[in-house]
Amino acid sequence: MATDNQILETYRAVYLTAEDLRVAASILYNAYHDDPFFIESFHSGDLSMYEQKLRGAIREELNELWQQEQTLIGLFEGERMLGVACIVSQQLPLGESRYWHWRLKMLISTGWQSTQALIKKESCLLEHLPSSNCGILQFIAVSPIEQKKGLGSKLVQAVLSWCDEQPEMDGVGVFASEQQHVQLLSQHGFTAIETLFIGKVEGELLFYRGQDNE
What's the pTM value of the predicted model, to 2 decimals? Predict the structure, then answer.
């Protein structure tokens, strides 16, 4: 039987490279395909149009986070990416302060209403986080074909390890609208700050306070 150390050595969490972004986008697209926020914000009755918008939004957001040197973490088994987590700091203008080039690319990819929904979501989270020195866990996902292996926990642990090493950051917040995600994050030290409605989607704003800030 494999020991815990052997299991841990099987997987590694590392920063993504530019060459990893295409695979990361695919993992996120499949994982977030049925996400209530994206369905509410992007779906207007045409499934193929919804999927096109979702692909475009994820692609543009990943590229923007990469170019702005935000934190993109991949969970790998050998050379194969199994999961991805994206953390954005408030050093990058978010919500209503988003850069014009991001707005333009999102408008082209998703349309006006969808872009506005993304901006309003970020503005809502920023309003309710404890301070302006908090990160936001923008995306976190394990490839659908790799579910039920405990990899979600490993990915969350990688995020927390990163957060604990950021002395200038008070912690990381995330909006979770599905109960299994709330439970997973709560098991790893996230606590619920507030129940929020983003559009018509109800969810919990969860927060992990870095160890240096406890």
Answer: 0.90
